[in-house]
Amino acid sequence: MKKWICIALIMVMGINLNGCSLFPDGTLNEAEDEGEYESLDIQETKITGTLLENMKVDAVIDADIEADWNQYKAVDAGFTKEETENNAKMFVHDDVVIKNVEEIATKEGEVLRYIYTYSDGSQFHSGSNIIYRSSDCGNKDHDIYIPNEYGMKISTEERFPLDELNGLSKQDSINKAKEILVKLGIEVCDNPRVYAMDVDSQNKYLESHGDRNKDIMSWTKDDECYYMIFKQSIRGLAISDVAFNGTSYTGVPAEVRVAVGHKGVEYIRIDYRFDVKETTSVKGQIISMEDALNMVKSAQQYYDDQTVTEIELCYLPVIKNGFSVVREYEIHPYWIVIIENKNVPGENGGEYQNKAIFIDAVDGSLYTRTFQNKI
Prior knowledge:
There is one protein chain. By secondary structure, the protein is mostly beta strands. 13% of the residues lie in helices and 42% in strands. Strands 8-9-10-11-20-19-14-13 form an eight-stranded antiparallel β-sheet. A hairpin with a 4-residue loop joins strand 17 and strand 18. The chain starts with a strand and ends with a strand. The N terminus and C terminus are likely disordered.
């Protein structure tokens, strides 16, 4: 089942970045005559305090301003028949062989993707994106169990109570996922989000959403797996888990998803692969976190009961021609600030929701985008 993320987009330009100072002791204070917030305690990977009267900060920081940041222009990564065949052979094992190859092309004969079907029913799709589903995936549709990072905030502790599955090593599973991604030529960050999908918890979720998931098969012990979400990276620096489509004004998942179970890799989904065509260095031009937070204040000052929970500096892909066969991208460094606030009364879902604010880390343009699941 394909998940799309709707975005409400507001562009705020020309926001004043002055009036805010970072003291040597790590405390961030607003000018006294403005009195908009009290203080922030900034450590290397953690920031706490009050940004506004209506906005608290208890956030993890993931940012390396001094890194070799660039602005990229890229297109969808191409593929050859030989490359695709070599990738497809990675999933041949035991008595499983490639049974059929289907070529999907435009009317003009341009190949869009190849679909390989194996003798056990598994499938491998290869084009600008890559998808693999083992026969053991069956009708499980692992994606439906995983909450998005944006939109309604869901307790993962309740849905995924276990950290480690019996008889299946978490670290070994992560290593298997990384190994197959290296072979596929996909560069990812080291620390994925990992969900231990045990039989009891997944069947409980199916039962509680019976009408919606009536065609999904119940889980057995053999179906247990680790579901991992990796962020892609360029030259060792993280890419956001969301790409923004500048044509349709929607956000789409840009991360890499892998499920590893008792029989090995069961599921892979890579929706975006980038082929960089132009590189422009912006090293030393990244605006400070102090400036980024000042812009967050301006954008969020009229909302109630907010808490900043994450601050990250990473790349954000923007699709410039979303409806074209070969997509073009601008990939720039952005400050991404995640804010938790109270859910709108009457909305379905949890009590809280997450909002992501994106700030271009070079030119300072700010977008506020509210993400909401659309399934």
